[in-house]
Amino acid sequence: MLGIKIRQAGNIVILDLSGRIDVDSANLVEVIGQCVRDGYVDILCNLEDIEQIDYMGISVVAIAYKEVINHQGRVKFSSIPAQLKSALAVSGMDRVIEVYASEDLALNSFKEDKIIEKIKRMQLRRRFKRLPIDLKIELKTKRDDSPVCLKLDILNLSAVGAFIFGCNKFKLGDEVMLIMKLAPKQEELVFAARVVWIPDKAIQPHEYPGIGVEFTNISTDNQQKLIEFIERNLSFIPSD
After folding, report:
1. At what angle do helices 55-70 and 82-91 cross, to 10 degrees?
2. 131, 233 Cβ separation under 8 angstroms
3. Handedness of CA 190, 195, 199, 205 (dihedral sign)
4. Cα angle, residue 77 at apex, residues 75 and 80 outer, rounded to 5°
5. Which structural domains are found in the chain, ordered by start?
6. Block means of pLDDT (10 residues each) for the chain, length 240 residues?
7. Angle at Cα 204 formed by Cα 200 and Cα 205, nearest 5°?
8. Interatomic CA distance for residues 149 and 174, integer angstroms
9. What does the pLDDT read at residue 207?
């Protein structure tokens, strides 16, 4: 069986793998699956002590990789012995996974990813205009046993998120669903979102109770409908 030792570097789980990655290496999928279920979605696989990987082992790596990606995580690989690189190249996996010559380079890449992601998010927020508006929506959670707030007000809307007034039943990171109808067609649209901001009652009393949400996995079609709705309504607002 594939040998796996687990350690951590901050929020990154490092798996030191040893032996062979083959048909009997399902424990790699199990360990990675447990990591993501425990909330650790940044994973580094150190292959320095791997002796061999066959085509069934490539399939195991692909399944483990997909498990992390499906949980919006990142998995990277470091210190791959030279004799293993040909198997990855022939299978095409070297074009899918991120491979680094050393553990330090791989760990630094996680930090660089976060910096780039933050910059892109800031650029995205600047790119899309925000519309001050009083728009009635319905808000609910993805889980039936969680609090539900219905018929609330969106006071600020963009193509990447919104500020919703009238509900204080959620916490940061909660997954919610927004149901809204946009004029003039009154077509019902449903958006998945994540709570990313909660105003402080003492500091921001005029915005409490409320939540700021960021849309997740929004389709291009729905985002375009939001952009058109926002642009149309902004045209009616006098500029300073």
Report:
1. 70
2. yes
3. positive
4. 165
5. 3-122 (3.30.750.24), 128-234 (2.40.10.220)
6. 93 95 94 94 95 91 92 92 86 87 91 66 57 84 70 87 88 90 87 89 83 89 88 71
7. 100
8. 13
9. 83
